């Protein structure tokens, strides 16, 4: 084994030991990042083989896959003694929605408009409904301005409507657009950023990400991506850790963040590492999931090459 591959495997193993990934969450990361661009389907045996180097045994993976089927993420197709798992329409929508936040490279300009979601006090929403709505909005990046009032400077209003629809309460909340009024001397909404979002904790997570994965960049620079299997394991772990942080980031406009916001450096590092690992990791994926000309394993979608701003020359 080449020294670089050995070093890559040792570093990946240390990262896994320090923070073992959960099987179900890791499976979602792999499906969205590596399988969806190839058609979104994979044999269970191939999925087991891909995740085994990351410490996920067959029993844990089978349990995770069954749960993803029950939750509507996957469809199972039995073909003889083999099981093919395919992203469902819901799973494909969830994956596409998350990809907008995971792979974005350049922060789009902000037009100053906020999306507000208000739950009127006199509606018949029960406590369970309100709790579920709050969790869904916070996952989408909304902050709570006041009881029953949630705000986000970038979220699409349609996404808030979809959340209400999915919870069965489209007629029990208001979705509004808002702007600060100039020259009235009032407190701007942006001044509440620290109150609505735990930016200090998020900044700490980004700094930890850089601390954990910066050594990987040196390892790759010293000897390339190494063996394809090692590159694939490192790519999955990298993307999984990144996804776990960035999907909890409200991705506020730059003007609401500190000038040295660590999320910027973390995203740049993630993009560089992702592309450094990409070709070798794709070779490993094709050798397992695309062996013998499997018809469900399609050529890589062109959109995948635009992730993190696109492959660097």
UniProtKB/TrEMBL annotation:
Location of the Transcriptional repressor PaaX-like C-terminal domain: 197-286
InterPro entries: PaaX-like_central, PaaX-like_N, PaaX_C, PaaX_trns_reg, WH-like_DNA-bd_sf
Record-annotated Transcriptional repressor PaaX-like central Cas2-like domain positions: 108-179
Domain of life: Bacteria
Stretches assigned to the Transcriptional repressor PaaX-like N-terminal domain: 22-90
A biological process from GO: DNA-templated transcription
This protein's name: Phenylacetic acid degradation operon negative regulatory protein PaaX
